[in-house]
Every structure is written in C-alpha cells, then in structure tokens.
Amino acid sequence: MPRIARDLRSAREQGTGPGRHDGLVVALARGLDLLRAFGPGGERLGNAELARRTGLPRATVSRLTDTLLRLGYLRHDPVAEKYELGPGVLMLGYGYLATTGVVELARPLMQALADETGCGVALGIPDRHQMVYLEICQAEGPLVMRLERGARLPIVNSAMGRAWLAGLGDADRRRALRRLEAHYGAEWNGIEPRLRAAFDDYREHGWCASEGEWEAGISAVAAPVGLGTPSESMSVNCGGASRSMPRRSLERSFGPRVRDLAQAILAAIAEAPHVVRKKKPESTTLR
After folding, report:
1. Range of 56's domain?
2. pTM of the predicted protein model
C-alpha cells in the first residue's frame, strides 16, 4: 500500500478527523500523491490505474483528477479517457530547478564523463523511497541507459540511492533508514545487508555500486553530492550494461571517475555559492 494511503488509514483509525492528521492536510497530500503516480515519458493513466497506484478510492481519484485538470496540473484525453501531467507541473519543476542552479553547473561536467565512458550519467534527488533524475547526459555507445529526466529508481537497490544514503550525516542516515524500513516491512531483512555492503564500498572507495540489482543486466556506480540537508543533497551516477562494467572496471575506472565528478560538481558550486542554499553537512562516520 502506498505510504500516503497508509497515513490516511492511520488517521481514520485514530479518529483525528477527515481534514488533517498531525498537521497533514489530507486533500493536498492526496492530490500530490496522485501527481507522483505518473511516470516519466508522458505516461497516460486512467482513474482506475491511478486508484491502484495510490491506494485511494476510485471516487476520490475522480474528484482529484477533475480538480487538478481545472487547475492545469493535468491534461485529459477524452477519447482514451486518460490523464497526463499538464503544464502546471512543468512550471513547478522549472521553479525548483531555477532555485538551485546545480543542474546548469553539473551538466557540462556530466556530459564530459558520458562522452569519455559511453555511459549514461545522471544527477538525482530523493523523493520518499525513490531517487528522481533531475538531469541525464547520454553518449552514443553500448553502455547507454535509455532513461529520461523524471525517471525514478529505488533508493535501496540503485547505486544513486545508496550513494545518497552514504553521503548523509549519521543522524540523517539513521532517520532515512528507519523510514525505508517502515516502507519495505518484511522485505527489509533482505535489503539491509546489501545496503551495509554498499556503505562498506563507500568507506573504502568513496562510491557505491549496484550490479544488476536495480535491473538485470544493468550496473552503475554513484557518489554523493552533499549540499547540506537530506532534501538538498543529491547524488550522481554512471551506468550501463553489466557485461561492459565488470567489478574490476567499477573499481579501477568507473568508480574513481564518478567520485571525481561529484567532487568537481561540489567545487563548481563552491565557486558560485549564490545558486544553492548552503548549510554545513552533519558529520558522518562513513568517510
């Protein structure tokens, strides 16, 4: 069951009222959760699929889609009876990117590594239990991952997500791990050992890897781009076909390069501190 649906069920069980739960505006939370249900690449979804993905009642989804359509956050195809994200969502995204400026600084550095390695190189941020691509730079070649801006990867089994966790301060990492454990429930016992192994890689090498764990046949390495708070911090990855990225290559070539890329992005940010809110990161014992 999606997280917001669990929160709403908990609110009903505790009798905290239909509009708020510990400061949570339920109607707003439901609307945002519905927008999150759309994947990248112009995905179109009907009310039934949106209800399945969000765990919300079909009647509630119908009211939400009608409201979001009127406000410009969704568009409707009357023939297919499906919805897609509207220009209102795009403007919110552009507004976020404009406040950071990190993508503009990182893009030429990322493209240089993509061209050198023939891989896909992406910059991502956390959203609940997933990482979301802010930017991806591609090169022509056999190692390229055909993903787009807005693509989502699980934090726990992607190199990008593991690097984001590894780069957090100790207290923030513990909080993030508790949230992930609550999300995955019984699956956590199989997930945690792999995360610990990834943190060992970070201690030893300064990067984290995922070898066919996020998707069969795909490997990647990633390093954190620590900007302060967990929501501000990012990570950058480099990935492609596993057959062309064996462990030895990860350790000798791809890993050090992506680690150096993360440091180059941080150096570029330091030279232009006006582009992002700066805050001293919490201490971490992983380094």
Report:
1. 3-89
2. 0.73
